[in-house]
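Re-run with default settings, no changes from the original entry. Doing this only to confirm the output is reproducible before filing.
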Amino acid sequence: MLHLFSKKHSLRKAAKDVLQGAERVKLYRGDLLSASDIEDISQAEVKLQNALQAKPFDFDAVGLLVDELHIVLVKSGGKIYPVSGLADYVEMVVMAAIVAGSIRSFCLQPFKIPTNSMWPTYNGMTAEVRQPNEPAPSTGMQLWRRVTDWASTHVVRAEADGEVKIPLDFLGYDNGIKRYRLKPHAPSVDSQDIVVGTRIQSVSIPAEFNLDGVLLRTFFAEDAALPLRRQDHDRWEKVLTTAMLENRIEETSAGPMLRTGRRVKAGDVVLNFDILTGDMLFVDRVSYHFVEPTRGSTIVFRTNHIPGLADRYGNPSQNYYVKRLAGVPGDKLRIDNDGKLWLNGSVVDKPAPMVMNSKRETKLGYFGYLADIGDYSYSIPLTKEYTVTDNHFYALGDNSANSFDSRGWGEVPAEDVVGSPLVILHPFGARWGWAK
């Protein structure tokens, strides 16, 4: 009963939103539309309004009529419609709620989580993946999720017949064996390539997103479920190793390709997924004027005084980061081969995310700490005990395998910590409320 109520409420909300969109289109574009266009909008409105008032409530009929009105509005809406403007409108309203610069500077600061380095505590941009043959959300549900979760639905259809292939980079030889990786997605480009048959097909995505996780969960679902230390990195290693043994990596004029074994016809759905943008937080900028940050807390800090985050020309980073404060001055830190974080001679016993990482609670999303994330100019790996220096903090991401943090770029100057997350302002779902 509760499920039906929730479904009915969601559908009514979606219908209300699309009806409001219709009124805005007629109000602001009425003088530009033909009489037949206005009549089409009005007729679709009336049918939807009648369906909403009908008893008993017919979910299927209302859903179809929401879709019908949406299609009519897309044709005539110009810049007033389609619904992508609603998400921008929500974000504008949220940001406009910060009415004074002084509040932003001294009390509360909005902060958008840019990556998944702190997952599962905070979400960056993530994907919900469906198999190609599964139904995508209806237009009404897409509208609802666009407002509540900033979710965007992507249904990618094949542009040619043939097997789906994934572009690779050749890394060289390791003991006489060829080594490959997925072709990296350039962060400044808002598309990523796949191959269908012999046709290179670009998939439009936000520049800060990449398809690697979507491709893994679409074509290699069993491997995607493996609870491995470095998560998707190790899962792809397994996929590529298996593909080498099975002769499923082929050399082409466009470079090496991973054959997925999935064959499609032109027009078939190849990828079917939603992208959810990251959590938006309010950061408390007041407390740390009076008390010192505590070990284990999440901190937001400036990065302009961290040389390891400067660009290749030496220009300081202007970003804000959020990480967990793992060590304060004088603390001795080490990560062992089992992924446990040792603090001053003992395995950490608080807070919960650090404890769960040290216990490798994979079912809860904590895969254990990694001591070393690569050789960088300012790396401070925790393969052996390290003592945090005066006036600095050592920061780690909860998602250790996918976090570029003090292990890679060094310590955080204590003076650059600006506050701690206070409230998850968006999305309006289970994650909404006081920050962890």
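The chain has eleven helices and 21 strands. The domain at 280-434 is CATH 2.10.109.10 (Umud Fragment, subunit A).
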